[in-house]
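pipeline/complex-builder :: batch 7 item 3
reading input block
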Amino acid sequence: GESVGLHLPTLSVQEGDNSIINCAYSNSASDYFIWYKQESGKGPQFIIDIRSNMDKRQGQRVTVLLNKTVKHLSLQIAATQPGDSAVYFCAEQYNQGGKLIFGQGTELSVKP
Amino acid sequence: NAGVTQTPKFQVLKTGQSMTLQCAQDMNHNSMYWYRQDPGMGLRLIYYSASEGTTDKGEVPNGYNVSRLNKREFSLRLESAAPSQTSVYFCASRWSGGETQYFGPGTRLLVL
């Protein structure tokens, strides 16, 4: 069945470094992808999204890259800060109605 | 705007008890969703409501029922709780003209 998976379940980075969180998806028909940040005890918070007709999209300190050839999605966080420590989820959507398929999540730990 | 709100924040049930989880959004969104989140796993869709008056099953609907009370409110009912339903439950909503789902803070449910 369809699945969205993450290559690295945990990632530890030094404050100020750039972080890269990776995600693989299996459904080539997926046309929308989204990254969420979830802090402990809270609900997922939208970070950035990208449609399948784009390869790259930038936000404030974050960039999402989409490689449809290898069905790979990545989230880049520039100048990582302690407040970026959280679990990051990618999700894909492949039909109308907004049903998202989530990956397991990657825990990002930022060392001061 | 409060966004998406959920009640209660935390609940302990005995096996066989019933309860209803409440969700409300004040963003005038058409679509609403219920997910569960278990340790080490991403969010899984239980039920969703594409618009007021409609509900559909998601990935893991067994043991649950839902009611789209009006455009603002979408409730999730456990008729006879089981320990396997111990989880964190998240409600989300989405505007019909967009793709992004916005999440509530979650309800932590423990079934003994």
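note: Residues 60 and 78 of chain A are 9 Å apart (CA to CA).
queue -> next item
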